[in-house]
Amino acid sequence: MSLSAKDKGAVKSMWGKMSGKADEIGNEALSRMLVVYPQTKTYFSHWADLSPGSGPVRKHGKVIMKAVGDAVGCLDDLTGGLSALSELHAFKLRIDPANFKILAHCILVVIGAMFPGDFTPEVQLSMDKFFQNLALALAEKYR
Amino acid sequence: MVQWTEFERNTIQDIFAKMDYEVVGPKALARCLVVYPWTQRYFAKFGNLYNAAAIMGNPLVAKHGVTVMNGLDKAVKNMDDIKGIYAELSVLHSEKLHVDPDNFRLLADCLSVVLAAQMGTAFTADVQAAFQKFLAVAVSSLCRQYH
Which CATH number belongs to the domain containing residue B29 in this structure? Predict the structure, then answer.
């Protein structure tokens, strides 16, 4: 399910509207994920505080959204552009790729809550495909 | 049997009491058909599903969206025996409609997005957790009679 020109346009446009609130979105999505899918907490046992909006959660939310922004900037070659991140996730972090889908869902829910007028079904379609392709690029080096 | 906390029970009852099934149902089903186009395979008789605008304006889609919400309503009113209440519905979806159960999850995800858009900041992480747990139980109960 690769990104069509229309998808890429929709992703860039939605990112344009979202990017100002990227940090907030990252915090909300990550906070939410840890509550709604408690099994994801297993990857953060080294954090002192896993509660919604905590210091480590906010900081990491920013990191994630920065990477999402970078991905928007390399839509024509996600695999190439995210190669280093893929190595990190494959060899060091070893996050089960199933969790990429979980985080993506949380990000989409937050976008829906924050931009109800802009997040039409068609935009969700393109964003969902984008995150799916992002996840694939991230999992590229796993095996 | 599913254990519900008081918060979860109250949250679910509250959400559905305030929900307009005529609005949320059609929006969620239409969104599902647009975001996950392969789900359209079950609606060949619904006429024009050629593009997003057609899907969102299709009266048969809207009607079925309401039907789905009325089905969920049964679970809301019988939270301690969703499995039992859904036994017949499960047989229907398996034996007659032949719906791949993964589609229930896709529709559930769309329902979460639609509710988030409606509730905004009120759709907190805890509320989302309760809502998705409820939907997961409904989906699991719908899957039970598949063989």
Answer: 1.10.490.10
